[in-house]
């Protein structure tokens, strides 16, 4: 997966031919989409401002659902599109075409700050009204700056995606190398047009000062910098769901594996936000009734010793023995001895689903120092 080449799409797509609107959609597997979307609206991301949103609202850019298309839906401004769409740019009366550097822009606050590894500018259903090219810049600012703060002189913007041609009705993917911590993005489209979705895949890096003030918090939470490193099975849904904010909204908002027909079991390996002391764990099977996991166990590993988390024999220590679970319920377990580590591995027996995992604890001095070193 990580060796997948990133395709390049340019030019308009064919006019909508009828039937399945995704039948001629241009896309391919991308090597970074296993990482969380830092611009997911469910994490608190927002489009703070845009130069123009005449035809379609800027907030559609961060909708976690796939873009929808209704060929018969029109409004008083024209075709209703599920994306961000600006009006057509015009030049002066003597030069009806816009200048080469004219463009529209949108300012995006990430839901979780982090290092960006890949960006998808999705022009689904924008077939002949997509931008000719796009670029993406990033900055890292403390607090909660508004549009005026971001547009002020002196704000340091770094180019993540240089101006690049894109295609209509396509998933335009861009790998990003060497990103430092990012809190906000500026998306530019030249000269105008429509973009359905913006996905910003990367590794979360929270504010270490805020976590220090919290003291005890969920060390595995995506919003606090936790990550899913690997899992035995992703057949029905992603294990990333288990570290999303809040209770599950339905069975789809969980991790569910296929039915095992052998004598094995399923598992997920998590990297905690940093080296930490673990105090308690919650295992939530909310909305999973006939397909919840039957039992669960939890182990911890400290990679500051040089251990490899991908090695099952690397020194993993069981901190919660195999314990029966109830369907559609929150299970809470204290962890005796306050174990320390950087990774946890959740095992479910034999298969099924887990909605959320919460690992409550606090950073050690080593963890706090490491997290601070990775900041802006």
Automatic annotation (TrEMBL):
A Pfam family: Allantoicase
Pathway: Nitrogen metabolism; (S)-allantoin degradation; (S)-ureidoglycolate from allantoate (aminidohydrolase route): step 1/1
Location of the Allantoicase domain: 44-204, 225-362
SUPFAM superfamilies linked to this entry: Galactose-binding domain-like
Region (Disordered): 1-20
Catalytic reaction annotation: allantoate + H2O = (S)-ureidoglycolate + urea
Gene Ontology MF annotations: allantoicase activity
Keyword field: Hydrolase, Purine metabolism
Enzyme nomenclature, EC number: 3.5.3.4
Protein family membership: Belongs to the allantoicase family.
NCBIfam families reported for this sequence: allantoicase
Protein name (Swiss-Prot/TrEMBL): Probable allantoicase
Species: Streptomyces gamaensis
Gene: alc
